[in-house]
Amino acid sequence: MAVPSLSRRTVTRSVRTLGVVSASAALMLGIAGSAAACDIDEFSAKAECVGDNGVITVTDVDPAGIPATVTVFLQNNGADIQKIGEQVVKGSREGITITFEEDWEPNAEYRIHVEATPYVDEDIEPNLTTPATPCADDEKPPAPEEPAPTPSQSSSVPAEEPGTPTPSASESGSTPAADTSGNVPSPAGESHLAETGAGSNTGLIAGVAAALVAVGGGAIFFGMRRRGTNRER
Fold first, then answer.
1. Contact 99, 84 (CB under 8 A)
2. 3-state secondary structure of 213
3. With 50 as the cut, is the pLDDT of residue 193 above it?
4. Which of 97, 140, 221, 224 has the most beta carbons within 10 angstroms of its beta carbon?
């Protein structure tokens, strides 16, 4: 019994159909692989505090675990002014978090760039803005007021009033000594003579008086002796 031969048209149609199915399957697999590999939506960033220190964390929830390079930039007016750091992360379905130590200022802006060749090469949108409250409060509490001194603690000596002049050493040394000669009593007889101006003739007067007394005494003596002689005769 002869086997019926396939027509050329039938073979061509079968090959074409198989090619279409294969191409569709490859396309679906490629799309699925790309979707599962890495995507920018799988990355997120936060500004947090660890004690008094600020940090920036980036989390990767890529189930495929494709290595990705994460770079953090500090921005000002839309321009990068400082590169904070760069790290490589391999995500997981549960999420892997990496930490950048950064003592961020309140309301600061950071640009987070992710590169995972050939899947991702873009920034996390929008840019990260830090909280308005800093991690550490730099303001120190005011010092407690000292209690007012009690009467027992205060000094018993009154303080000198401002503006009261104090004697200097030169002033105290130049003060003349008080004259005390007027308070010393003078010998008797001298003060009166000094006041009248006759103190210089005292010796002369005393000599004349003594001579007169002697002359008078001699005259009386000779007179009495002569009277006695006359009586004997």
1. no
2. helix
3. no
4. 97
φ/ψ region of 189 (left if φ > 0, alpha if ψ in -120 to 50, else beta) reads left
- Residue 40 and residue 128: Cα distance in Å, rounded? 15
Long-range contacts of 111-114 (CB under 8 A, 24+ apart): 111/72, 111/73, 111/75, 111/80, 112/43, 112/45, 112/56, 112/58, 112/70, 112/71, 112/72, 112/73, 113/70, 113/71, 113/72, 113/73, 114/40, 114/43, 114/68, 114/69, 114/70
DSSP conformational letter for 157: S
pLDDT in tens, 60-110: 999 999 999 999 999 999 999 999 999 999 999 999 999 999 999 999 999
Angstrom distance (rounded) from CA 49 to CA 134: 9
d(CA 150, CA 186): 60
Residues 6+ apart with CB under 8 A from 122: 40, 113, 114
Query: Residue 45: which of 94, 114, 93, 92 has the closest Cα?
Result: 114
H or E stretch covering 73: strand 67-76
Residues 6+ apart with CB under 8 A from 89: 58, 60, 67, 68, 70, 96, 98
Based on its alpha-carbon atoms, the radius of gyration of the chain, rounded to whole angstroms, reads 67
Q: Are 106 and 133 in contact (CB under 8 A)?
A: yes
| Tokens read off for 109 | 């802006």
Q: What is the pLDDT of residue 38?
A: 86
92-96, 121-125, 216-220: which range is least confident on average? Answer: 216-220
